[in-house]
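Re: beginner question about structure tokens

> Can someone show what the tokenized structure looks like for a real chain? I only ever see the sequence side.

Sure, here's an example I had lying around. Input first:
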Amino acid sequence: MTIEGSYLLHDIGDQIYRCEYTAREAVYGRDYLLAFEDDQILLVHDEPGALALPRISEVMSEMEFASRELRYLFSVSERSFFAPVHWSASTGRGEYMSIQSLRTIEPQWMAFAGVTGYHLSYWYRRNRYCGVCATEFMHMEQERALRCPKCGQVKHPDIAVAVIVGVTCGDSLLLTKYAGGVYRRYALVAGFVEVGESLDDAVRREVLEETGLHVDRIRYFDSQPWGFSRSLLVGFFADLVGPPTVKLDSGELSEAVWFKRQDIPVSESSISLTSKMMSAFRDGRVC
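And the corresponding structure tokens:
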């Protein structure tokens, strides 16, 4: 289901995201550098004063470039993006800022590239050594995977699957607020899919665990890669079955409230699947 006029993080118009891995060398004056320190990304100030992802030549000298190893991540149309291998980029000609800054960076392809680079770089940084025998991984040449030269274990990128659920009761939608974390605006019931669990079963379980409610008539809405949490988000709407009284799991949520369509708050950002689902229900495009 596609909602006209709503643009998710990965909706990059006529730009083409090329995710396939190839063993290639970076070009100094052309390619981009995606460097991270924990949950911060290296950014530069563009000419109009806006934040932007840096080209390699904007944050490194040619001497530094020649002595440092860079790994190819992906391309967006003709633009290629690389990450440092086992070293940190200096901040001499850039500034490390929260990855949340990427929510407002324009154009959209640049925001998407930054978040996707964070997902991949996070995985690389936390998988330097084999979890079976502790030998340092080697990168495979023919695909994006790490291989242990000693025991042969192969490690592919981690992608967690999560469901987002718009629980409906007639003309009302259940909105929630998380008990922890930095996000304080209204959201929808959400949670990660467990091993051996179908998407529909995950929807029923998450709603029941967090709110004590039962749902049925589960229908798929849309999906979204969400590099902020290294996840693939899958959105569903589901109808309430039984009484609407919420039994809140205070460990997960601080609030769960029924909102009439016309009272659903407008999100400040439209790049998330959650905001798209809330908007679709508020505007009567989902029953």
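Each token stands for a local structural state, so reading them left to right follows the chain. Residues 1-5 have pLDDT under 50 and may be disordered.
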